[in-house]
User: Fold Allantoate amidohydrolase from Nakamurella flavida.
Amino acid sequence: MVKHEWVSPDASRFASAWSDLAGIGRDHRRGGYSRHGFDDADLHSRAWFVEQAQRRGLDVETDRNGNLWAWWGEPGVGAVVTGSHLDSVPGGGAFDGPLGVVSALLAVDELKVRGVAPARPFAVACFVEEEGGRFGLPCLGSRLLTGAVDPDAVRRLHDPDGVSLADAAARAGVDPAGMGPDPARLAGIGTFLELHVEQGRLLRAADPTAAVAVGSEIVAHGRWRFTVTGQGNHAGTTAAADRRDPMIPAAAIVPAARRAMQRFQGAVATVGRIVPVPGGTNVIAFSVQVWLDARYGDTASTAALVDAITADVRLEAEAEGCTVVVQRESLSDRVVFDPALGVSLSERLGVPIVPTGAGHDAGVLAAHVPSAMLFVRNPTGISHAPEEHAETADCLVGVTALADCLADLLL
Ligand SMILES: [Zn+2]
Assistant:
C-alpha cells in the first residue's frame, strides 16, 4: 500500500519551484551550479522566472540593464520591491539568490491566499550578474541601475572567453547602448526587501531557535587584481639564480592575506583565483594574475588591509626581480540598512538582527532606497559551494516572514 504524507500547499509549491530550478545550470565539472550573467543557464533561469511570474498574473518587463521586474498591478511611485538574483558563483550552491526569488514568488501566492490587495505598486525583481561570476563586477545589474558604475566601462568588460558584456547583453535581447543609470525607475522604489540564505552562522550565534533574521549591515568589500610579471623561461634549463619567476611573489599573496587576517581583527582576505600566463607545466610563467577578495569594516579599513598585503608582495617581487601592478576591480563601502525599517521588521517577526560579510543587491540599493534583508538559517554556514543548504521548513518560515513584512509594507 502506498502511504500518502500530507504536504502543505506552501511546501508543495516550494518543492515544485525548487525542482524546476534544480536542473538549470548544473556544473558537472565543479559540482553545484554555474549560472552567469546572460549565459545559457542564466537565460534559461530568466525564462523560468518570466513563466512563473506570468502564471501568477504578474506583468514582466526587462529594464534597460537587463534586470527583470514582475509587477503585481501597475508600476508606480512608492513601490514595494522584493527579489534577489538567479546567477551563481562558479560551482555555487542552489540557494544563494534563487531562494530570494522563489520566496518572493511564493510570498505573492501567500498574499493572495490572505486576500491582501496591494495598496502600493509591488514588484518582484531579479538582478543581473549579482555574483560577478562572468564579467568580474558583482552586483552588476543593481550598480548599473543606481549609476554606481560607468556604463562605458561595463560595456567593455570581457568574460574569460573574450566575449564582451555588450555582445552577451545583445544576445540576451538587451540593447547594450541603453545600459546605464535608470533614475526614474530608482525613484519609483519606495522600499526594497531581499530575502537571502544566510552565508555564515551569525544567526545561530544570535538566537539558536530562530530560522530567520533581519540584516543590519554589510561590511566593506572589494576585489583586487595583482599582475606579477617576471621572465618566461624553460623549467628544465633555467638555474635558480637566473630565474625571475612571477609565481614566487604571486604565491606569496596567499600567506600574506592570511597574515593580514591575523593582524586586522575581524578582516577576511582570500585568494580564490590564480592564472599563470602562459600556463604550462614545463614553463616558468611570464606573468601571473591573482585575484584578492578583501572585506573589512569600511573602505578605509579595507584599503589598509590590502595595502598591508601589497607591501608584503612587493618585497617578495623585488627579491625575485619581478614587478607587481595592483588594480582595484571593485570596492563597496560598508552599508548599514535602514535602521528603523530593520527594527520594525525584527519586532514584527520576533527575530534577531545580524550583520553579514556578503555583498548583495540590497546593499547597492540601500544608498538610494530604504532597504532591508531577511536571512534564512544555513545550518553549516557554507555558501558559494555545492554544500550550501537551508532546510525546507526554514525556507517556508522565510516565505511566511517575507509575506508578513510585505503585507505590512503594502498597506
Ligand atoms: Zn546572493
Summary: The chain has a mean pLDDT of 95. Residues 85, 96-97, 130, 196, 360 surround zinc ion (CB under 6 Å). The two ends are 49 Å apart (CA to CA).
